[in-house]
Here is the input.
Amino acid sequence: MKLPYLPNHDESSFFDFVSTHHPGLTPGGHGVVPADRWAQPESARSGVPMAVPHATTVLAIKFQQGVVIAGDRRATEGFQIADRRIEKVFKIDEFSAMAIAGAAGPCIEMARLFQTELEHYEKLEGMQLSCEGKANKLGQMVKANLPMVFHGLVVMPLYVGYDLKRAEGRIFKYDLAGGRYEESDYHAIGSGGKDARNTMREYFQKNLSEPDALKLALTALYNAADDDVGTGGPDLVRGIYPTAKFVTAQGIADVADDRIRSVYDSMIAVRRSRET
Here is the structure.
């Protein structure tokens, strides 16, 4: 169906339209990259990667009703803190969310483009993409960003969605070439991802309750911040806490800072008692 404001485009993908007619607006800045252009750019081989703020640790955990997705708030630039309050967890649509790790600017740009892509598809087709279809769309965007990876502008998303057909939450991770892989229980990415995964591996159980899943997610982020200089822990003085969202059959629900602080207050009290 051709639209009057898009006379040369009759598909439901906004990303394909931008890639074809305005490739400079895509994450990689080149649209769909031909096979002979996957080689590392000359400028990247001879120059120094751009110094840009990088996001760090984000994670997702399945529980009985869906998935909790969370991330710390710190962005670093080398050995300096570039931002203490950056948002790394985004609502994409009514039943899906995305967390980012990598170069902050391109990551946020991709999250916003992904939101627009799904809204555009729904308006033209009159229905939502399936959970797996959304995951595939994001993989195409990650692949389009591959040329910028050679410049140091890495984008690593973590996508979660509630699958209405299967009545369960799902977690998807990606490689730099857009490869999509589903995780069965939990996953974490970023500079502190390994530390967070170690915590989740030790304490994860099937069919966690919502409060237990949130506690485990916040504990994993706290332990990652304890070992990884690029991951920010809870800042009790400034009132800065990780961002967390629940993705369930009822939609997306933000976790209030007060609730996150209460979890950390209890956790810190327990750890202090062990040291006395």
Remarks:
- The longest strand covers residues 155-163.
- Confidence is low (pLDDT under 50) at residues 30-47.
- The chain has eight helices and 13 strands.
- Residues 4 and 10 are 10 Å apart (CA to CA).
